[in-house]
Amino acid sequence: MSGAVLSPHHAGLLFLQGSWELMSEESDSLRTSPSAASLSESELPPPPAPAGYVCSLTEDLVAKAREELQEKPEWRLRDVQALRDMVRKECPNLSTSLEDAFLLRFLRARKFDYDRALQLLINYHSCRRSWPEVFHNLRPSALKEALASGFLTVLPHTDPRGCHILCLRPDRWIPSNYPITENIRAIYLTLEKLIQSEETQVNGIVILADYKGVSLSKASHFGPFIAKKVIGILQDGFPIRIKAVHVVNEPRIFKGIFAIIKPFLKEKIANRFFLHGSDLNSLHSNLPRNILPKEYGGTAGELDITAWNAALLASEEDFVREFCQPGPPCDSILGQALPPEGLSSEAPCDDSMWAVKSQLYSCY
Residue 84: which of 100, 62, 95, 108 has the closest Cα? Predict the structure, then answer.
């Protein structure tokens, strides 16, 4: 071969082949060279960091949370991580969100006590699984009739402490139209919407209950079984702080209603009930007239339910994701955990219409 004479055609082919091999070697060298690799990586932008919690509290609310809830901003994410680790270790089968903002609700509701916050989280999910009549398909569009009745709304103005005011009007409910559980579903929807706000997590809420026109027959629907379940959720199964319950226009029958409720109330909550009767001046000493509608002697215009109903209906997709997705029939951790007092699915044997009416009649 050394003495062979190449034709111009073969010489051209050999030249092209050698050039291609040289280019391939240089390319491989660049791909495998540590300096080249490190250089290219340093020039690339870093991957985006996962979206984390961003505090929306004002400086005043940060100070209030520090004083009342033992929340220290510099330790906040450490506390959230501690609760997250406890859930993973002690409740590995609990189907729950572990996002910072979600877990913070439970820490704030229990003043950053890890053990109590974890128990509240377990109770929260246990409540939802123990009362399917309330929590199945829980979304605003399924409750249009209850919302349109005016049974509940949230007033547009907060009280002087920054608490949203949940206004309940039982007289607007007509039992023949839908069962009482629809009202409870509407209350729970409202609480879920309210607690999304960090301000509400810190400030809590106030309940204004107007019992004007509540009859014996209507009151009898709220027996001990339902009372225990509702109070069990509000006290031990939901991450919200109830700062006061103001009752107005209560008839004599309310003594019977309160007699049903009181045994299930913790002393701290029972002391936050204020019965004003028809004395609106007494109400105004707690809730100023400038934040109340004219129906309660206020100057903030007529009571309007449309704005709050619209806010709930606008959150339809959020509630569908949270409450309308298929899930496990029962988490093993919930099977082992004791539900909050009053959340047993078994109704007491004395919870009959006659027993309730007898108790209410005794108040006359």
Answer: 100
